[in-house]
Design brief:
With 421 residues, chain A is α+β, with helices and mostly antiparallel strands. Chain A is built from 15 helices and five strands. The chains are: A alpha+beta (421), B alpha/beta (214).
Chain lengths: 421, 214
């Protein structure tokens, strides 16, 4: 299990709030403007913006709007008012880093909301004691539970998550967290109970209990989900890394080791060339298994084998590639024989292969600047190879010419029509 | 040709390769300087005003293309020969279109590299067989809207010369086979280089990306 960097857990959800310089950058502008949040929005980001502005976790702001809505629909009005006076968030999120929620301002905010509720009750904008107070209690409790964990807790999360995997998450919360959880759960339970006390009914009781359970356990489940997806992303990344490492190990490192053990320069060059060809194909070629159905791929294969066996460089240039059919396969085999021939007998360092796939013909040249020969004086064994090249191409209505002179190198030129004449 | 020794500037971010090339070329050329990143290269080339810059395509800070684009406007006489381990078509086309007079791979034999530098010094183009293949591919078929017919297509003779280069033949051999002078072969190649650099042919840009997707 690779170490999980705490960074990716810190960075989750919201921008980090640990930059005191940036957060005090322009206090005047900050005190005048209220902007909606771009990073933390459910509807319009108004609650997120207000929470950031007041140093209160936005979840409390949202709960306050919800509870005030129960008191004569005032929450909706208040929300619209906040939305109207706030402005669009700045384009770069870094421009206004959110303030860190404090317990003081959160308590103050709670008291303000309580006061508002009492005022609204006095004014008669009220849906009834039996509804509003239990709902307010339950909402406040769930807000306490759902509120985002502080930085210290977050750090503990990532440490434990790194050590214990997804299951460790369930046992994470420390002492402060337990107190918070307990208080929240108590508020939720009291709210629910007082609600049920006034409006009994089995179905309602089951529903309310379920809701309470979700409110209490929700944060854990949500965090668990996030943890699992983080883990999966990290695993995919490390699998990719391992795949690259495995490939380099099987290919480049092995070849480098072989080169160090080799004393013969020719062997060394051949190893380096073969490895270069393979690495190049891996880096610049198509992903996945090599597509052997293309003429160019098959030609590269032939060149690679010839380089391996004969310690020469075989350079392949293909213009206008095409699929490997009966006719191009015939060209391929003839080119293969010509390359082998040149590599084995010419003594040249480089064998150049040029294949051009045109609209009506396939044309191929195999050129070397080696010893060359006089066609009339060719020994029988090489005569046979030449004949087999000529014969094979002739069967498809093509032609093969071999040009060679002693000291001038050799060129084999093949032309095959792509279709029946 | 020229009696003055050719001044060469080397740009490569691999120190080992740099020292290897330096010792290979020192006998024939004056190596006036070397640099291993884009900024040092541009400053060094402006200071030493070499005849030929041997330029690595891949470097931190923008690569060989950035060097050409930075130096060429003020020093039009400096000629660039691109050198790379990459045979990827888009790299080749990009650096040649930026203004390099040729492109060779790092596996080139020392004698051939020296020949290529001489050729670039004389104002000719250097086409490796692979580059010739790329160009034939890029200019094949009909362009959808040839905006400039003179630039957007190769002549039959230019095509013929490129095919011979792709077959691995030297200019001298090509001249003999086509029964023309070496100078005429060079003229054809320079003309192809000009078309490659100036043609707005739609395929030239599209082709490089297509090639990997086919």
């Amino acid at each position: 299990m690779p170490a999980v960097t705490p960074l990716c857990h810190h960075g989750r959800g919201r921008p980090t709030r640990s930059d005191p310089i940036a957060s005090t950058a322009s206090p005047l502008a900050r005190s005048v403007r209220l902007s909606r949040s771009s990073t933390d929005r459910v509807l319009t980001g108004a609650a997120g913006g207000l929470g950031e502005r007041l140093a209160v976790d936005p979840i409390f702001v949202r709960v306050a709007f919800a509870v005030l809505t129960l008191a004569g629909g005032m929450g909706v009005l208040a929300y619209l008012l906040v939305w109207a006076v706030s402005e669009e968030p700045p384009h770069s999120p870094a421009a206004s880093p959110p303030r860190r929620p404090t317990s003081t301002s959160t308590t103050a905010f709670g008291l303000v909301v309580l006061g508002l509720l009492l005022v609204l009750r006095d004014l008669g904008l009220w849906f009834g004691n039996g509804l509003v107070w239990p709902a307010a209690l339950a909402a406040a409790g769930s807000a306490v539970i759902w509120t985002r964990s502080d930085d210290a807790e977050r750090a503990r999360w990532s440490r434990l998550a790194a050590g214990g995997g997804p299951l460790g998450v369930l046992f994470v919360p420390g002492r402060i967290s337990w107190v918070r959880m307990g208080a929240g759960a108590l508020l939720v339970a009291v709210g629910m109970a007082s609600f049920l006390d006034r409006a009994p009914g089995l179905l309602l009781a089951v529903g309310v209990t379920l809701l309470g359970t979700v409110l209490v356990l929700g944060p854990w489940i949500a965090r668990l989900g996030r943890q699992v997806s983080d883990e999966r992303r990290e695993r995919i990344r490390s699998e990719e890394r391992a795949e690259v490492a495995a490939h380099l190990h099987d290919s480049v490192l092995q070849t480098l080791a072989l080169i160090q053990r080799t004393t013969e320069p020719g062997e060394m060059v051949a190893l380096a060339r073969g490895q270069e060809r393979e690495l190049r194909a891996w880096l610049y070629g198509r992903r996945g298994p090599p597509d052997a159905d293309l003429l160019s791929t098959a030609l590269e294969g032939i060149a690679g084998r010839a380089e391996e066996h004969h310690h020469v460089k075989v350079e392949v240039v293909v213009v206008g590639d095409g699929p490997l059919d009966e006719r191009s396969a015939a060209v391929l085999r003839a080119v293969g024989e010509a390359v082998t021939n040149a590599a084995a007998h010419s003594g040249a360092d480089i064998v150049q292969v040029f294949v051009e796939v045109g609209p009506s013909t396939i044309s191929a040249y195999v050129t070397d600047e080696g010893a060359g020969f006089t066609l009339a004086e060719v020994p029988d064994d090489r005569r046979g190879i030449a004949d087999s090249i000529v014969g094979r191409i002739g069967r498809y209505g093509g032609s093969a010419t071999i040009t060679s002179e002693p000291g001038e190198g050799t060129e084999v030129h093949l032309t095959v029509p792509r279709h029946h004449p | 040709m020229t009696t003055e020794r050719t001044r060469v500037f080397l740009v490569d971010d691999h120190a080992l390769f740099l020292s290897g090339v330096r010792s290979e070329l020192a006998a024939e050329f004056d190596i006036v300087g070397a640099a291993s990143d884009v900024d040092a290269a541009m400053a060094g080339i402006r200071r030493t005003a070499p005849h030929v810059v041997l330029l690595d395509v891949h470097m931190p800070g923008g690569g060989g293309r950035t060097v050409i684009e930075g130096v060429a406007p003020t020093h039009p006489d400096v000629r660039f020969l691109a050198l790379s381990v990459s045979d990827a078509a888009e790299d080749v086309i990009a650096v040649v279109r930026a203004g390099a007079r040729g492109y060779v791979t790092k596996t080139i034999a020392p004698a051939e590299l020296a020949g290529a530098i001489r050729r670039v010094r004389d104002g000719d183009a250097v086409f490796s067989p692979r580059l010739a293949g790329f160009v034939l591919d890029a200019f094949s078929g009909e362009g959808p809207q040839p905006s400039d017919p003179e630039l957007d297509a190769l002549t039959a003779r230019e095509r013929e010369v490129l095919r011979h280069i792709a077959r691995g033949l030297a200019y001298k051999q090509i001249a003999r086979r086509l029964d023309i002078s070496v100078k005429t072969v060079e003229t054809h190649v320079s003309s192809v280089l000009r078309k490659l650099q100036l043609s707005s042919r739609y395929e030239l840009t599209r082709w490089a990306t297509d090639r990997r997707l086919v």
